[in-house]
Amino acid sequence: MSATYPPTIESTMADPALQLAVYTATGRLIAKRKNAIGGDLLPDFEELRTHANALKRHTIENLDYYLEQVERAVERNGGKTVFCRDGDEVADFVLNLAKERGAKLIVKSKSMTTEEVNLNERLEHHQLEAVETDLGEYIIQLAHERPYHIVAPALHMTRYQVADLFTKKLGVERETVVEKQTMIARATLREKFLAADIGITGANFVVAESGSVVIVENEGNARLTSSAPRIHIAIAGIEKLIPRAQDSAVFLKLLGRSATGQPLTVYTSFISGPRRARDMDGPDEFYLVLLDNGRTKLLADADKRESLYCIRCGACLNHCPVYRKIGGHNYPWVYSGPIGAIITPQFAGVQQDPWLPFASSLCGACAEVCPVKIDIPRILLELRSEVVEGKTREGSNRWELLAFKLWAWVMRRPKLYEAFGMLAASVAPSVESGEAGPRWIRRLPGLMNAGPAKAWTSERDLPPPPERSFRAMWRERTGTVRH
Amino acid sequence: MSRDQLLHKVRTALGRSAGQEPGPPPPVRIRIPQIERTERIAMFRRQLELLAGKTESVRSYSDAAGYVERVLAGRDAVASGSAFLVQCGITALAGVRSGFTSSADLRAACATCAVGITSADYALADTGTLVMLAGPDQARMVSLLPPVHIAILPASRLLTSLDELLSIVPDPAQVTSAMVLITGPSRTADIEQILVRGVHGPGEIYVIILEE
Question: How many contacts does A have with B, using Cβ atoms within 8 A?
Answer without folding.
Answer: 261
